[in-house]
Amino acid sequence: MPIKIADGLPAQSILENEHIFVMTEYRALHQDIRPLKIGLLNLMPTKIVTETQILRCLSNTPLQIEVELVGLSSHSSKNTSQEHLLEFYKNFDEIKGNNYDGFIITGAPVEQLDFTEVDYWDELCEIMEWTTSHVHSTLHICWGAQAGLYYHYGIPKYPLEKKMSGIFMHRLLTPKARLFHGFDGEFAAPHSRHTETRAEDILKNPELRLMAISDEAGVYAAGNHSGSRFFITGHSEYDAGTLDAEYRRDLERGLDPEIPKHYYPDDDPEKPPVLRWRAHSALLFTNWLNYYVYQTTPFDISKNI
């Protein structure tokens, strides 16, 4: 089944070349079926890249999905054209009267700032509060996960001595959770961050469960018991070359970054990295959509909560 996107979105040609079935708004008008309505609050600077990555992850399901891109009114993107934002994005004021089956809040390159120092923190808090009454299940990613854990549960983030960058092995702590249906006992996933959320803080909160962890990279997944909120601290949506691009960007900036761990063959940046997490990534998003959105959201979306 297709994933529904706006007419002309740049991701369309990329996904179609990967044999992913996308449906434009024009074609979807002839469908007599209610698609799942998913909102994507994209906080990443390279928005077109992130749109494509998330849409790819959402595409591995027989469900029809309608994705709505959401931006912030209180922050101006420096890396994406205003034409793209005006054509494809809606701000919060435009969507806050809507209800969504699912909502995704991405990461952002601001984790070295205190939450309250982020220029759009107040607006993000308003959006996170809004999700409690207008969204059936919300998926928070990387810094979006740290922000959600802090806002909803008061769980802090801590600075790391050096950037956590690379592909790390993880183990399941809740293997029977539907979010991990079909997972192997161990799986690989990318991380790219300067701060961490600590397992002991999550374990102290009775409203949360710690779901997956890495001995090297720390917390990977947590969620509340109802399945209305999940927090993924890694970047499972990343493409094979995303960490490479970040590494070379930091080299050009003179930041002297460490080579991403367990990423390049023989730790040699001149050798192309091997994609080792795509199957797990597709399954993670598919399970979220199937078990925590599709199977429990009401047909009448206005009765979502």
Percent range for β-strand residues: 25-35%
Poorly predicted tracts of residues: none
Succession of helices and strands: EHEHEHEHEHEHEHEEHEEEHH
Shape: globular
- Tell me the number of strands: 12
Supply Rg: 18 Å
Cα distance spanning the termini: 26 Å
Multimeric state: single chain
Helix content: 25-40%
Q: Please outline the major beta sheet.
A: 12 strands, mixed
> Average pLDDT across residues?
90
What structural class do the secondary elements suggest? Answer: alpha/beta
Number of helices: 10
Ordered list of secondary-structure elements with their pairings:
Elements: E1 3-5, H1 11-17, E2 22-24, H2 25-28, E3 36-41, H3 47-58, E4 65-71, H4 82-88, E5 89-91, H5 92-95, E6 100-105, H6 121-134, E7 135-141, H7 143-153, E8 158-172, E9 186-196, H8 199-203, E10 208-214, E11 218-224, E12 229-232, H9 242-252, H10 278-294
Parallel strand pairs: 1-2, 1-4, 3-4, 3-6, 4-5, 6-7, 7-12
Antiparallel strand pairs: 8-9, 8-10, 10-11, 11-12
